[in-house]
Amino acid sequence: MSQRPGTSEAPLRVCTVGSGPSAFYAAEALLKAEGLDVRIDVFDRLPTPFGLVRGGVAPDHQKIKSVSKVYEKTAEDPRFRFFGNVRIGRDLAIADLERSYHMIVWAIGCESDNRLSIPGEELAGVHSATEFVGWYNGHPDYRDRAFNLETARRVAIVGNGNVAMDCSRILLAPVTALATTDIADHAIAALRQSTVRELVLLGRRGPAQAAFSPKEIEEIAELDDVDVAVAEQDAALDDYSRNWLESQARSAQRNVKFLAERAAHGTTGKLKQLHCRFLVAPVAFEGHDGRVRAVRVQHAVLEPDRDGTPRPRAIDRYSTIEVELVFKAIGYRGVPLQGLAFDDNKGIVANVDGRVLSAASGEARIGHYVVGWAKRGPTGLVGTNSPDSKATVLCMLQDLRQDRTLPASGQDLAAVLQQRKVDYVTWQDWRRLDSHEQAVGQARGKVRHKEPSVDGLMQAVRSLRG
Ligand code: NAP
User: Fold this and answer.
1) How close is the Cα of 138 to the center of ligand 1, in Å?
2) Residue 164, helix vs strand vs coil
């Protein structure tokens, strides 16, 4: 019988697919596991690492982005290798990974978004926040998107989570402040032309159930030239929410207090406004000549569901809000990957506690694990992924002790990629690109300049190799 992997003679070979926070936290936990000799290869379809820290976290939140310093430490470990610009399903098959690794960690996030499935959703001017976020962050998938910022005056944002807050801030903040961040050049050019003056934030539940974090809404209220406007009737709590709130986290209470203060304060005639509306949900987008002109909303009241969570119940009352642009910020959703079981209800990789399930048997599939949003759904902050990935790594170590690993032939996929003429990006390549992006950015008075296309990134990588 062959030796159990994890020793210096036979290191445990692990790969992650994806290089966002959850992949790095899993790699860190494995590298720190006592008595384990492990080699970790991290694959990403993009030439650049860090997933949502690079392509999701807002450019004016550089402090949050600086968590990448922690990931850099992990990557400097000689047992770690990065393979950027490698897509599983195109350059390598799942079977290739299964032949080379004892364990595979899927860290593929949630790359799509939820749909409202209401009439008019296909009209021009109705976009997902995912597209807008990717676009302003210079994510190659979204660089070609266009939003009519230069003619829109009033914009509806559906949902009131922190993604809605990010989009609102980018639309309302002074362009001069954004221009010094690592925001994409195409985004700053469009924002300079922006005529947007009013955002209408549509929450389907009440102020006590607002999904934004207090400091995110407060940050918007602190922006120059921006009034956060809340009508008295929108800030008011129903009896049920008032009682329910007592059992909730302090953040919900702080939101309610903030919103009530804004309602009492009224607006002060500032140039731009963020209107927080509650207990309204879009039922249709109305258009003219194929372009959105209004959102029709249905009002609701709150009712507890079986576990006491307040849920909206639609009532027979409707309003129409004229808007020229809509962003749906109603949550992300995973994309099924051929060969990997998918939980369609939750929009995630089918798993139990991070052990991926086999589509055929429904049992845990040997050697396959999942972390991050692909495991638990699109919730939590960047740091939430650390305990989440550690929990999956504990399952991996438990399975290793029970010899539940793939056989792994020892074939090095670096050689396979070279044979297949895949120009993969190493960690050293990325380090050079990283310094280059920062140097170019600084010469232009910003934190970093991001080349927005994969071709452009790869050209830079190749020229920096010398
Ligand atoms: P989220 O926090 O789940 O918010 C989604 C919002 O969409 C909620 O208001 C939700 O209302 C609403 N919604 C969902 N389905 C809807 C529908 N069919 N019709 C109308 N409204 C609907 O998700 P997110 O904003 O995408 O953020 C994802 C995660 O990333 C969150 O954990 C967030 O905190 C985190 N994040 C953090 C930051 C930061 O810290 N700066 C920035 C961005 C994202 P209900 O509450 O009624 O479901």
Assistant:
1) 22
2) helix
